[in-house]
Write a structure and sequence with these properties.
The chain contains 4 helices and no strands. By secondary structure, the protein is mostly helical. The longest helix has 33 residues, at 51-83.
Length: 118
C-alpha cells in the first residue's frame, strides 16, 4: 500500500507541467496506483475481520468513501472558483493516500485479525 500511495504523490505537479502528455502520464500513473490501493484496501478488511463481518465493514467503508467523494466534488468547484487553479486539488490528492495509510497504521498497528469470543 505504501508503494501505491507513493506513486500518487507526483500528481501534485500535474497542474504545472508544460506538456499535456506529461500531465496525462502523471494522472494515469496516479489512477493506476489508486486501483492498486483500492484492491489492497478491500483485502485488508478480509484480513482484519471475521468472515461474518467483512461485508458490513466494506459496506460501511464504501458508504463513507461515497459521502466523502460527494463532499469533495461539491467543494472542488468552490476551490476552483476561489483559486482558479487545480494545484490545491492535486495537492489534496497527492497527500490523501499517505495520510490514509498513516491513519490505517495508527488505528490498526498490528493489522491482526479480530477474533470474536463465541
Amino acid at each position: 500500500m505504501l508503494f501505491c500511495a507513493s506513486l500518487v504523490v507526483p500528481i501534485y505537479t500535474a497542474s504545472s507541467v508544460e506538456s499535456v502528455w506529461s500531465a496525462i502520464v502523471l494522472i494515469s500513473v496516479a489512477a493506476g496506483a489508486h486501483q492498486g490501493w483500492s484492491a489492497n484496501l478491500f483485502t485488508t478488511a478480509s484480513d482484519m475481520f471475521p468472515r461474518s463481518a467483512v461485508g458490513s465493514v466494506v459496506g460501511i467503508g464504501g458508504m463513507a468513501g461515497s459521502v466523502g467523494s460527494a463532499l469533495f466534488a461539491f467543494y472542488a468547484g468552490h476551490i476552483l472558483q476561489l483559486t482558479h487553479s487545480y494545484a490545491s486539488l492535486f495537492g489534496i490528492a497527492a497527500s490523501a493516500y499517505l495520510l490514509a495509510l498513516i491513519a490505517l497504521c495508527l488505528l490498526a498497528p498490528g493489522l491482526k485479525k479480530v477474533e470474536f469470543a463465541a
